[in-house]
Amino acid sequence: MKAKDIMRRNVVTVSPLVTAKELSELLTKHKITGVPVVDSHGALMGVVSQTDIVRKQARSEKDDALDFYRDVMPLFDSVSRVKDEVTVFDLMTPAVLSADEETPVGDLARQMLARRIHRLPITRDKRLVGIVSTMDILRAFVEMEDSKGEAAG
Predict the structure, then answer these.
(1) What pLDDT tens digit does each residue of the chain (153 aa) get?
(2) Could you say which of 85, 105, 118, 123 has the lowest number of CB atoms within 10 Å?
(3) Separation of alpha carbons 3 and 104, rounded Å
(4) How far apart are CA 147 and CA 61, in angstroms?
(5) Predicted TM-score (pTM) above 0.85
(6) Domain locations in the chain?
(7) Helix 134-152 and helix 105-115, axial crossing angle in degrees, nearest 10
């Protein structure tokens, strides 16, 4: 069994210009935890997940505490920082791992375990054609076990 046999082909993707708020809404709407980031030509740029949003929020809260202290110090009274809206580009993991459609499922599983990732984009000529998640891998292993049992019986 290969990546092309288990991958989901209708992949929800985002542009790097999507805001963190829009990303959160998209993940919630589709009940997913992460998505590939693609450019206007469909080339894979990275991956972004709900964990990336949480990490960014945690860092922002630390920055807010520092801003509070800056605000109360007379030396910094005239300094004001304007926070730009956070985008997927700010959050994503760039230069992400991907696999070819012909990659065996066992190799996909090994890559995901070694890198501790939950999804692996599947590409053809650097363009996204599908995605395999940990649930897809589990499903494939169950199907392989079931077919072994049927063949033996």
Answers:
(1) 999 999 999 999 999 999 988 999 999 999 998 999 999 988 899 999 888 888 876 665 455 444 544 444 444 433 333 345 888 998 888 867 899 999 999 999 999 999 988 889 999 988 899 999 999 999 999 988 888 777 766
(2) 85
(3) 6
(4) 51
(5) no
(6) 3-152
(7) 140
